[in-house]
Structures are given as C-alpha cells and as structure tokens.
Specification:
Length: 306
C-alpha cells in the first residue's frame, strides 16, 4: 500500500515517516506500507498525486493554503479510490465531521499517534469502502474528543445552540442543549495522598461513571482537574422535579457504591441548578464546584443540593 503524508509541519511528517519506515517494520517481518510521497499542503499534494499514485493519504486538518478538509473534498470528487485518514488535534470537530462526510476512513489524534494506532487505521483503509460513523472510529480518540467538548461546554466556549446539538450528535453524546443539569463529583481523599493523579485512575473513574450513565441514556462525564469530575444530565423531556431528583440520586448512589467497591475511593457530589438555556451551564457548574469545596468540613461521601 502506497502512503502519502500531507502536513505543513516537518516534525510531524518526520515522526510519521519514522513510524512507517522503522516502528511498523520492526513489528512485522515485512511491512505492507510504503511511503510514496509527502506534501506541505493540499495543493502540493494534488500536484504530486499523479506521480506518487498513493492508495491512502494521511493528512493534517489545519494547514495554510488548501487545508485538509478541502483536500479531502477534492480527493472524494477526483480520486474516489484514494482512502483518506485525517490527522487532527483534539478540537478540530468541524474538520473531523467534514472529512467523515466526504468518505474519510478514520482520524488520528496527532499528539497520540503511535505505530499501533497507525497500523489499525491503515488496515481499515485496506478494507472495502464504507463510511463509518464516528462511534465506530477509534474509541480512544472519540473519548478524548468528548472530554474536550464537555470541558469547553462547561467553560462557556459555545453560544450557538445548533452547533452544540450538532457536536453532541457527532460525538454520540446522549445529551440535549436544553435543560442541562451539572453535578460536580470530588474524590474525598485526594488531598491525603491516598490517590495519585494518574491517567489510569482518571480513565477508570470516567469509564465506570460512563457505564452507569449509559444505562440512563441522558448523561456524560469528564475529568476536570485534581480529583474533580463533572457529570452532565440532560432532562429535555422530563419536567417532574420528583422524577429528576429520583434519577439523579439513583445514579449518584450507584456511582458512589462502585467507586468504593472497585477503586476503594470515597466521593462526594454537589448537584447544580437546572437551566433551560445551555449558556447558563458554566454559571451553574461554577457555583456547584465552589460549594463542593466545603465537603472537607462535612462528612465525606455526601450529596449536596444547591
């Protein structure tokens, strides 16, 4: 399989070339992938394609001149047999969605690129052409994109409702832009030294909470900082305060029990205010976060309601 690299950063191209020519061959007796060419932008790539004859193009999304999305669209029309793999940063949502709509087979996060992930993506490119939805793409990449989107939502980065709804749908989040309620979860013994801030611990917490929220089909979670996590619940079709309270407390009690049983951690919660307008979410989250700081003067493992 002939591979072309398109990226305006020399270091990125060098890194990918090293993986293709050294790391992947080291894992196999004979590598099925051959670097056939490289380019610094979309226009240069289009000019070199007739001579390079790539089977797959690995392309950065943000480049001066013709960017990755424009190149993907051009290849989709002119060279539909060439498979496209996007190289993106965690916040390139619009680019990722655009390339998927134009037949991209996968996307890779540049700061997490490895021989294993690149091999998996190239193997996928060898399979019969099918346009995969984002939920079927690399699970680790999707998780990172979801985490970053939720953090941006909590900090007030977005103001357009349609944009928020579109990104929730693209990322497969069971949320709505209306009637969102934040809950802040804090690990009680984080400051005592019993818990080390590690990627594995954060991943385990997020994974367990995500599984519990998936049962309710109206929640999501993200790691914020230093033992604090944000849970978002969506109640677009529920207006009964009793039903909402029952759903939240049921989920929080399950989370608390699982944290104790599986990770030997005690956690506390502060339930924020529910607003119809998602733009008030940062305000609700900040208030709940500040209130949770008082948990150190209370019995650990509790649930505080504003």
């Amino acid at each position: 399989m002939n591979v072309m690299i398109v990226d305006d950063e020399v270091l990125t191209r060098t890194h990918i070339k090293y993986i293709l020519e050294n790391e992947i061959p080291a894992q196999f007796a004979a590598s099925p992938y051959r670097l056939c060419g490289e380019a610094a932008d979309g226009r240069e790539a289009l000019a070199r394609i007739p001579a390079c004859r790539p089977d797959v193009v690995l392309c950065d999304m943000r480049m001066p001149g013709m960017d990755g999305l424009a190149l993907c669209e051009a290849l989709h029309k002119t060279y539909p047999q060439i498979r496209f793999i996007a190289l993106s940063n965690y916040d390139d949502y619009d680019y990722v969605r655009g390339t998927l709509q134009n037949g991209a087979v996968d996307y890779l996060l540049k700061h997490r690129l490895s021989a294993k992930e690149l091999t998996q993506a190239l193997s996928k490119a060898q399979q019969p052409s099918t346009q995969a939805p984002i939920a079927q793409l690399n699970g680790n990449n999707t998780l990172v994109l979801r985490q970053e989107f939720l953090l941006h939502l909590l900090t007030g980065l977005y103001t357009d409702r349609q944009e928020v709804e579109a990104r929730m749908q693209t990322l497969g989040l069971p949320l709505s832009a209306s009637r969102l309620l934040p809950v802040v979860m804090g690990v009680d013994d984080y400051r005592t030294g019993n818990l080390r801030s590690s990627n594995l611990t954060n991943y385990s917490i997020v994974n367990i909470v995500s599984e519990i929220l998936s049962d309710q089909k109206n929640g999501a979670v993200c790691h914020v900082e230093r033992g604090n996590y944000a849970l978002l619940f969506s109640f677009a079709g529920t207006f009964s305060e009793k039903a909402i309270g029952s759903a939240i407390h049921g989920a929080l009690n399950r989370i608390s029990t699982c944290m104790t049983n599986f990770l030997n951690l005690s956690v506390s919660f502060c339930i924020g205010e529910l607003y119809d307008d998602f733009r008030r979410l940062p305000e609700a989250y900040q208030t709940a976060s500040e209130q949770l700081q008082n948990r150190f003067y209370q019995q650990p493992g509790g649930i505080v309601r504003l």
